[in-house]
Specification:
The complex is a heterodimer. By secondary structure, chain A is of the alpha+beta class. Chain A is 23% helix and 34% strand. Chain A folds into two domains: 170 residues, 3-Layer(aba) Sandwich (Protein Transport Mog1p, Chain A); 138 residues, no CATH class. In chain A, strands 1, 4, 5, 6, 7, 8, 9, 10, 11 and 12 form a ten-stranded mixed beta sheet that branches. In chain A, strands 13, 14, 15, 16, 17, 18, 19 and 20 form an eight-stranded antiparallel beta sheet that branches. A two-stranded antiparallel ribbon of chain A has the order 2-3. The chains are: A alpha+beta, B alpha/beta.
Chain lengths: 323, 293
């Protein structure tokens, strides 16, 4: 991804570009200031306040996505330019940073945006991109602590892009930069047989609805996922072949056993209890469990591939590494 | 309505047995009998114009009006728009226009043009109402024009025609999860059934991923209207266009996920039309480039 760098110098200049009268908003103890005006855009009024009770009025079925990521509430502002090229600023407060990361992880496409002063970590063998903000076609998506934000213009223009990036910088400024979810630390970057992870296909989530949006298993919640679970989905490639790894951390061992039983009963009704690898319609499927953890290798080209991908998964929490 | 658990899995789709699984789950033993009564062929019209939007996506009303007229004439075989409308409706009908209200909404220009065209055909303006939303009183309406925007939907695969009446259910969240396969049943509610006189999909700027709250990287200028009388066939063609665009963007097959079970169930279970592309005749007019079908 090509990087977009907003230097501190440019950032300060940009702040000078705003009208001095800012609009204070708060989400609990955290505060930030959105400017009344930015370039030719003017704030239309106070933010619309969205929570679980009215999110469907705001975005219909799109609301399920945020509820699936333990959305708490959202503020939405409109900036108007008088010519119809409005900019919408949506700031979502999630229950945890992991959930804000998860929303960003659903699509790693776009240009990476780096805020000046942000500490950057580039692991040698990343299992997911290190981006905290991504821009494309007039939409900026960013993860900043437990905040997930979307800033979008009706039409992408040079001026709109600049304004969007500057608004993103304001929202991200001063917020903590927690690491990605610890569960990513269990993902192997590589597996035996030249399998390598495709980092930009790694996604963190908690809900089967989200899983289905990139790897459909069933409309039923076969694995008994819910907001108390953590899950990560990764794709591995070897030459032209691909396989997938789904890692789930349940709240306890009973929940993990229930998830595995439900999956076996409905997805693999024909197989024996003691098997771990199965040939199904889209390739080989493997299962591995321990305590409250469950790992599934999915759609692998052969048994050895499923074994190789699962073989590198280490469940012991003490062996989690920084992703 | 009797509620049963629907357990359709990825394996059913790969085996090609999803329709049977849906039918068995939703209809039980009646499924086999219903499955033998498959209907005939369906026609879906696609009318496109490269210049219907400018570089900033402003709609050219004159071109859009011509596209609408072409849809009406091709759909009905009549010689002018007035005759076309009057072959579908009576001037005394109370007509509900049902656009997509939020997130990639139906273009206002299209809604206005349909209204104007109906008035020109002799329908009193007072008899043409906006009919999208859960508070709409459907009882006085004698005709509906289904006017959704074409878009992929993160919960239902596609969120276009069959899903367009979801608010008529009074409980849209009931159709967001495993029961999205049941969306077709809304079309068979007494206050809805048989009222849809035309399906007119706004495909000027469709969304091929992450709808309804779209990412503009997945919205593209298709410049089209997709229309006909078979809501399922139109969704099936819309899905084909969306999946073709997704494959083009990613450079490899990129099917919508989750699969659009609501489309297959609308055919196999609720008998609303054809979901099988081999039984759908696509008639395309106008701009040919990047038609994706």
């Amino acid at each position: 991804m090509a990087g977009i760098r907003l230097s501190l110098y440019f950032f300060c200049l940009a702040l000078g570009f705003f009208s001095p009268q800012g609009v204070a908003w708060s989400m609990d103890s955290e505060k930030a200031n959105l400017p009344e005006t930015i370039a030719s855009w003017k704030l239309a009024g106070p933010p619309r306040r969205i929570d679980a009770g009215n999110i469907f009025d705001y975005m219909n079925g799109g609301g399920e996505l945020y509820l699936a990521y333990r959305f708490d509430r959202m503020l939405a502002w409109e900036y108007r330019d008088g010519g119809g090229n409005d900019i919408t600023v949506e700031v979502y407060r999630m229950q945890a940073s992991d959930d804000a990361f998860g929303l960003l992880s659903l699509d790693w496409g776009g240009e990476e945006v780096s805020w000046a002063g942000a500490a950057e970590v580039h692991p040698a063998d990343p299992v997911a991109p290190t981006a905290r903000a991504l821009y494309g076609a007039g939409l900026l998506r960013l993860w900043a602590g437990d905040i997930y934000a979307r800033i979008m213009a009706v039409r992408e223009t040079y001026e709109a892009r600049q304004a969007i990036l500057e608004l993103g910088a304001i929202i991200a400024a001063g917020r903590p930069l927690p690491p990605p979810p610890a569960l990513l630390g269990l993902l192997p970057a590589a597996a035996d047989g030249a399998w390598r992870i495709l980092p930009d296909r790694t996604a963190f989530f908690r809900s089967h609805l989200v899983l289905n949006s990139f790897f459909y298993l069933s409309h039923e919640n076969l694995l008994a996922l819910d907001s108390s679970c953590e899950a990560v989905f990764a794709t591995y490639q070897r030459q032209a072949g691909r396989g997938h790894l789904l890692l789930i951390l349940y709240p306890d061992a009973d929940a993990a056993a229930q998830g595995m039983r439900g999956f076996l009963r409905t997805y693999l009704p024909e197989v024996g209890k003691d098997e771990h690898f199965y040939k199904v319609e889209d390739g080989w499927l493997g299962l591995k469990s321990q305590g409250r953890s469950l790992a599934l290798a999915l759609a692998c080209p052969d048994r050895e591939s499923a074994q190789a991908i699962l073989g590198r998964v280490e469940f012991a929490e003490k062996q989690r590494r920084s992703p | 309505m009797k509620k049963k658990s629907i357990v359709v899995t990825r394996r059913d789709f790969i085996r090609g047995t999803a329709g049977a699984a849906l039918g068995a789950a939703l209809l039980g033993p009646q499924w086999l009998r219903a499955a033998t009564t498959a209907g005939g062929r369906s026609v879906v019209l696609i009318v496109r114009d490269e210049k219907v939007m400018d570089a900033e996506f402003n709609v050219d009303r004159r071109i859009l009006a011509a596209m609408l007229e072409r849809v009406l004439l091709q759909a009905t075989g009549k010689e002018d728009a007035r005759a076309a409308w009057l072959s579908l409706l009576k001037p005394t009908d109370v007509i509900g226009l049902v656009p997509t209200p939020l997130m990639n909404p139906t273009h206002e220009e299209l809604i206005d043009l349909v209204r104007e065209s109906l008035v020109a055909a002799g329908v009193p303006a007072a008899n043409i109402v906006h009919a999208q939303g859960r508070s709409v009183d459907l009882a006085p309406l004698t005709a509906l024009i289904c006017m959704p925007g074409l878009k992929a939907h993160w919960l239902t695969g596609i969120g276009t025609v069959i899903k367009n009446y979801i608010l008529y259910s009074g409980a849209p969240r009931n159709y967001h999860h495993q029961d999205s396969a049941r969306l077709g049943e809304i079309w068979n509610l007494p206050q809805v059934k048989g009222k849809t006189k035309l399906v007119l999909v706004d495909a000027l700027r469709p969304v091929c991923d992450k709808g309804p709250q779209f990412d503009p990287r997945y919205r593209w200028p298709y410049g089209g209207l997709i229309a006909g009388f078979d809501p399922v066939a139109i969704d099936a063609v819309g899905l084909k266009i969306i999946e073709a665009k997704r494959a083009e963007l990613r450079g490899e097959p990129w099917p919508v996920s989750p699969p659009a079970v609501c489309v297959e169930a609308a055919d196999k279970v609720y008998r609303l039309g054809n979901s099988d592309l081999s039984r759908i005749d696509i008639k395309a007019f106008g701009w040919k480039e990047n038609a994706l079908v």
